[in-house]
Amino acid sequence: MTDPVIRISDMNKWFGTFHVLRDINLQVAAGEKIVICGPSGSGKSTLIRCLNRLEQHQEGTIEVEGVSLDGSLKNLESIRSNVGMVFQQFNLFPHMSVLENCTLAPIWVKQKTKQEAEALARQFLERVRIPDQADKYPGQLSGGQQQRVAIARALCMNPDIMLFDEPTSALDPEMIKEVLDVMVELAEDGMTMLCVTHEMGFARQVADRVIFMDEGEIVEENEPEAFFSNPQNERTKMFLSQVLSH
Amino acid sequence: MSAKTWTPTPARPAPANTVGFVGWARENLFATKFDSALTVFCAGLILYVLDVVFGWAIVDASFSGEDRNACLKQVQGACWPFIDAKLGQFIYGRYPEMERWRVDWVFALGLLGLVPLLMPKVGFKRANVIFMLGFYPLFSFFMLTGGSFGLVPVETSDWGGLLVTLVVAVTGIVGSLPLGILLALGRRSELPIVRALCVGFIEIFRGVPLITVLFMASVMLPLFLPDGVNFDKLMRCLIGVALFASAYMAEVVRGGLQAIPKGQYEAAAALGFGYWKTTRLIILPQALKLVIPGIVNTFIGLFKDTTLVLIVGLFDLLGIVQLHFTDSSWATPETHITGYAFAAFVFWVFCFAMSRYSIFMEKHLSTDPNQ
Ligand SMILES: Nc1ncnc2c1ncn2[C@@H]1O[C@H](COP(=O)(O)OP(=O)(O)OP(=O)(O)O)[C@@H](O)[C@H]1O
Ligand SMILES: [Mg+2]
């Protein structure tokens, strides 16, 4: 195995006095796809948000591409631009067109020229299959289209790692597939992905490992086949029976 | 057996009496008995008011004459010759007649820069902004005060009328927006000292009447300055008004900032934007757009508050109109009301223009199809 791109050791985090993440240990290799699941409030979002320091942990270490995330960090912005993130609520910039959403960060953070950025943006919009929506505003698009724009926007920064926080949970059933298709393609292209989702079909199809969290801990971790067919932990079994029953 | 194909029912036109003017009137004016009564009553009220105003301003009004004798008819309406005779004073105050062309130049150049700036379709916005915020203030300053480039110096105590109103209002508007934005950002800062400073400033200036601020600026401020340092009374008023307005502006802008969802900050951070770029490119454009009505409301309030500079001995438009009521050669029962009507009309024109422009901008900037 090559050197892991993400290395989390003995990481703990509190919100005030609330111990939200407990003794997290996790290593992710380049190109690996990890699916994280677990009940609501178990700390899934918090965990992946620690990876680009949207949240700060208090104990233990997190290394992303060899750089340790801690208070002494000088160039947080450059780390962040290497780690793309897609949110449940899309979080597109509503005052800008789709194209501007995609070119803003390449221009202002990566100092690309407008032409370069636009060419890149169009290429990625093509890849998420909405090249013809480039001049529309986010408010004019369906949820599925918005989420695909959000993915394209993240990809425009050429990230090495992509984080997804329940990217399909806010979508109507008709639109979930179009977003998942894009994510599957991305996975096939070899992107390193950490994905919080309850789409078990997606987990089976692309995940190298599935992680189950509860109460701020990683309870179980396994390859998808083994994880679904033969969960080791009572808690996991209960959760899976609830998720898979509908 | 082949599956049935479903075809949507074709659309039909709406019934005739629900569309067009008749449909509109039915629905909006005469929908119920009560609506009909209200419609008739309001229409009557409007006609009555129009009749009174029209009678006073036109039918019974005097339009020409050299002095008060023109306005002493049995049934006398507005005394427009008074306005005509004093118009120069109302616009320029005691600015020397020979030098008034300088004021005209400043007005004209301002208009020339402002109009294309306000029209979204016209290009060269960056150059225009640099011109209006860089060159124009300097030009106006040297042009109006004189004393260099071979221009005769004109004391600010001789300025007056619309000139003072506009100088105070425009400086207040241009100064209060950026200052208000900074204060609003400071109030939400994570640095306790910055936050305390901004909160203190905002609460103090919002908590006292503008008159007090103007008094302080003109009477108290010199006490704090070292001997011999003395800066112009008008200048002190400008600073006072701008600071006062910025406190209000800060609260308006803060309202906009609070309406921006946390997700916008997070998306920006995740893309690698730092604080200032996030603020400038993502947060402020949205926040300011949301509070355009509030911003313009503050501008309008500020514009009308400029009349308070009278308290420290500056004569703005209203002040100078009032000053001329004492002219015995124009002493008629209608002089006051005509003067006030004129001043009110001028203020209304400016404020109404701002209000309409804000509505236009809101529509123009809207990217939400559901609005
Ligand atoms: N900023 C915060 N301050 C305090 N508590 C928080 C904060 N953010 C999250 N929490 C709490 O931390 C716990 C974990 O939250 P987190 O959002 O990581 O859960 P999650 O596993 O993503 O849940 P969900 O499936 O509902 O998204 C929850 O109990 C939540 O209430
Ligand atoms: Mg979550």
Key words describing this protein structure:
heterodimer, A: 246 residues, alpha/beta, four-stranded antiparallel β-sheet, 37% helix, globular, B: mainly alpha, MetI-like fold, 67% helix, 0% strand, binds adenosine-5'-triphosphate, binds magnesium ion
Describe this structure in words.
The complex is a heterodimer of chains A (246) and B (371). Chain A has 246 residues and is α/β, with parallel strands linked by helices. Chain A has helices at 44-50, 76-82, 98-108, 114-127, 143-155, 173-188, 200-206, 224-229, 234-244; strands spanning 4-15, 18-29, 33-37, 59-64, 67-68, 83-86, 161-165, 192-196, 209-214, 217-222. In chain A, the strands form two sheets. Chain A has a six-stranded mixed sheet with strand order 6-7-8-3-9-10, sandwiched between helices. In chain A, α3 crosses α4 (114-127) and α3 runs parallel beside α5 (143-155). In chain B, α3 crosses α6 and α12 packs antiparallel against α14 (335-365). Chain B is globular. Chain B is 67% helix and 0% strand. Chain B folds into two domains: 18-49, no CATH class; 82-365, MetI-like (MetI-like fold, Orthogonal Bundle). Chain B starts with 19 loop residues before the first helix and ends in a 6-residue tail after the last helix. The structure holds adenosine-5'-triphosphate (ATP) and magnesium ion. Magnesium ion (MG) is lined by residues 44-45, 165-166 of chain A. Residues 15, 18, 20, 38, 40-46 of chain A line the site of adenosine-5'-triphosphate.
